[in-house]
Amino acid sequence: IGGSATENTYMLYIFGGTIIETETDGETEYRVSNSGAGPASLRKLTVTGSVTAIPDFAFAYLENVEEFVLTGDVESIGMYGFYNTGLKEVVIPSTVKKVGNYAFASMDALESVTVSGSVGLGTAAFYENRNLKVLRFEEGVTVIPNAVCYPYSSYDRTTGNTTYSSALEELYLPSTLVKIGDLAFAYAGTVTSGANSTRFTD
Q1: What per-residue confidence (pLDDT) applies to 36?
Q2: What's this model's pTM, rounded to 2 decimal places?
């Protein structure tokens, strides 16, 4: 399961959904057709066996799934691995060494994230999670990448304004931290509106 948005190896495809890759002005974007393809009653997924990696797009867009149970020692989570799923809490264990770009992005139900000290995060890992309240980086984390917690935004075509919404209430930073990337916590804990918007690419 997973590995590519274009090879139909992600789990949503099993249920009849399709991830579509497009390119606009040199930027790659993804959208999904039949986003409701995942069964509404599917709330929990259990993956057994010696799992060491969650590939790119593996569980993306399974928006009703609230719990994932993984056995084995997962060492990497690919880009968009859990994108737009229904998880309410994410705890990235110490076995994980790498988390891809946008791995836990656009998850409306997500309220709490804990990142273990051994984890290397990709750009915008928790991008546009509008209800994220608690973000905890444990001791050992040295780098927080660009736009890691960039807020949900909406654009008003009439006024030309972009509104940014963040529910962040608690942010825990470790003493081991060396670098915080650009706009990592932009507009944190606020609802603001402005005429300019910033867009990030991988």
Answers
A1: 65
A2: 0.84
